[in-house]
Design goal:
InterPro entries: FAD/NAD-bd_sf, FAD/NAD-binding_dom, Ferredoxin-NADP_redctase_2, Pyr_nucl-diS_OxRdtase_2_AS, Thioredox_Rdtase. The chain has 315 residues and is an alpha/beta fold. It is built from 6 helices and 17 strands. The longest helix has 22 residues.
Length: 315
């Protein structure tokens, strides 16, 4: 007889692992599908200081390892497979991957989001070593250091103000001649003595041996290049890339309701517009994308999936 899981969770970041933990504890037959390795964005984070309780020596990989161990301890099955197609039309949902086809009574979408990269040489190599995509996560590490924020939208400008509480100086590097952020936020920046703006400029390269040491900027109008070198006493500076996120939701377009940026719309109980399909973590519409909110989403989605199954499937 073909196996039908109670719950299939797509994605093994903090949201997916939390959903798995709660589903497993509820004695639901649960499968987590992940195309790469467990952990999502958090596995690239060197220090996780803002997760309540945390672990000793709180690195991203150690926190994820603990989450995986917890999910496994409750009998959650995990498989590596890249999902290519999904059919949510029937009561039993069908998920098709490169390695197989899977069926379940309920689905939790926890596919996450990825920062939009600059694509500059050195960016990937120095991510977590001076290059960051999350001010809430990392601003405190740059207390009394110089920081450069790349971008000009609402997020970049708001995060510049937040970072200015810690940094010695914050410089916004924007590729256009005016910010795209709301005027009210712009006014706060222009009135903040700790924040400057470099206009019409893009990052050409980020340099450093194991840590950010310099950055090459290029003026888009004149073509002139300038290298920003770390203060000799500091030895480094922060680069916060704030040019947007890309929700990993392409698979669900036209099936699940989304906002205009591709984030899945879910209510406070993580329910989507499709019966029996729930959403958790960074791929959903929300105001704060952090490990703590992802794990909360995952817990709620699993409990709601359990209730859905109880109400819609006879024993």
């Amino acid at each position: 007889m073909e196996k039908i899981y109670d719950v299939i969770i797509i994605g093994a970041g903090p949201a997916g692992l939390s959903a798995g933990l709660y589903a497993g504890r509820a004695k639901l037959d649960t499968l987590i599908l992940e195309k790469e390795k467990a952990g999502g964005q958090i596995v690239t984070t060197e220090e996780v200081e803002n997760y309540p309780g945390g672990v000793e020596d709180p690195t991203g990989p150690k926190l994820v390892a603990r989450m995986v161990e917890q999910a496994d301890s409750f009998g959650v099955e995990r498989k590596l497979d890249e999902i290519k197609e999904i059919n949510l039309d029937e009561k039993i949902k069908v998920v098709k991957g490169e390695k197989g086809e899977y069926k379940a009574k309920a689905i939790v979408i926890a596919t996450g989001a990825k920062p939009r990269l600059l694509g500059a040489p050195g960016e990937k190599e120095l991510t977590g070593k001076g290059v960051s995509y999350c001010a809430t996560c990392d601003a405190a590490f740059f207390e009394d250091f110089d920081v450069y924020v790349i971008g000009g939208g609402d997020t970049a400008v708001e995060e510049s103000l937040f970072i200015s509480k810690f940094a010695r100086k914050v410089t916004i590097v924007h590729r256009r001649d005016e910010l795209r952020a709301a005027k009210s936020i712009q006014e706060k920046v222009f009135n903040n003595d700790k924040v400057d703006v470099i206009w019409n400029t893009e990052v050409k390269e980020i340099k450093g041996d194991g840590i950010v040491e310099s950055m090459v900027l290029r003026n888009r109008e004149t073509g002139e290049e300038k290298e920003i070198v770390a203060n000799e006493e500091d030895g480094t500076f922060g680069i916060f890339v704030m040019v947007g996120y890309l929700p990993q939701t392409e698979l669900f377009k036209g099936i699940i309701d989304m906002d205009d940026r591709g984030y899945i719309i879910g209510d406070e109980n993580m329910k989507t517009n499709v019966e029996g399909v729930f959403v958790a973590g960074d791929c959903r519409v929300k105001t704060l994308r952090q490990v703590v909110t992802a794990t909360a989403d995952g817990a709620i989605s699993a409990i709601q999936a359990e209730k859905y199954i109880e109400n819609n499937f006879e024993e």
